[in-house]
Structures are given as C-alpha cells and as structure tokens.
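Field reference: sequence -> structure
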Amino acid sequence: MYTLDNFQLYNFTNYRRASKDYGRVSMDVTRHDSVESGVISQNHMLNKKFFQKIRGELVGYAAKRREVIKAAGDAQHHAKRAIFALQRDAKKDADESLSEAEKLLQGLNKQFKNEPDLFTEGSYRAALEEYVEAVLFQTVLQSKELGLVSGLTVDSDLYISGLCDVPGELVRYAIKAATERDFKTVAKMYAAAEAIIGELISMDLTGYHRQKFDQAKQALGKLQQIVYEVSLKE
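Structure field:
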C-alpha cells in the first residue's frame, strides 16, 4: 500500500488550502464584477443631462427666492416706517419711506418679470400688502379719494387685505387727535372708516379676508366710542 511521507503530506495540505483560497477569491471577484455591472446598468437607466437640468432649475429658483425674500423684507420694513411716520405727521419721512418701498418692489418686478411664481411667495405678498396699507392710509390723511394704487401691480386680494387694515390705523390717529382736542380730525377718521366698512360689507368676504374685515369692524366700533366721548367734551 502506497503512503505519503511527511513532506508529501505537507505539500498536499498546502495545495488544498491554496485551492480553497483561490476559489474564495474567484467568488469575491465574480461578486464584485456583478455589483459593478449592476451600478453601470443603473446609471444607464438615468438621463444625466435631464436630471442635471432639473437640479440647476431648482438651485436657481432657490437663489432667486432668497433675493425676493431679502428685498421684500426691506420693502415691508420701509412701509411700516412710513405708517409710523404718518402717525406722527412726519410727512417727509413717510414720503421717503414709501418711495424706498416702492423702489424695491418695482425692482423685483423688473428683475423677475419672467418668473411669476416668485411673486406668489408670502414674503413678497406681505410686503406689497403693507405698502398698500401705507399708501391708502396716507391717501385718507391727505383727504384724497381712495382708489387705485399706482406704480405697482396690485391684485384685488392684496388690495382688500391692505384696505381692511386701514381702519385700525385711523383709530390710532383719531386717539392722537382726540388728545390734542382736534375733534374735526376725529370726525374725519370716523367718516373714512365708515365709508371703507360700507364698501367691504357689500363684498361678502370669506376666509382670511373675513377675519380682516371683522377686525376692521372692531376698529370702526372703537372710533364710534371715541366720537361719542369727544362729543361729551365739546
């Protein structure tokens, strides 16, 4: 019977071990190749140019949106300053602030005239609403007729929202006038608020506008109380 000596047995054992290692490596290489081929096939499933275009549009819109938010925020700030100036009868300051607000809003309209979606952003609409309120409040104080807000495109929703806020400003102005015993101005503020409410009540407002209209009616009630108290002092 043929037997292996120790040297032959050692070589045989190493050969079998090496064969197993080679088989394991071969399986790993095969598996790696299959994964790579899967990735390649998935890449072939995507239109890279198309997705690059979509990515570029989204990134570009986000950058433009940030510009609108920044400029609109500044415009809203100027509009608020204009209202504050009007309450103090600082007419020159009010004119300057309104001019700055208008300039910013017009700049956005010109810069992004081909991007109408940007003007549906809340920041822009809030700024425009504040501007409308300031312009209409100034119009009342100047004893002019309320109507179109020139210089900017204002849709009916924004116009009504801004108009609903005016009676609240008239209340504050009337209180100041009453403390100065300027009863004629108090009556003027009441008459203006009453005229505004008379128009709004016929519009059957709902939702957000209804809430603002209810606030405007409350302001009218406060003006009525001021007029009553002033009449007792005359």
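Note: The chain has two domains: 59-146, 155-234.
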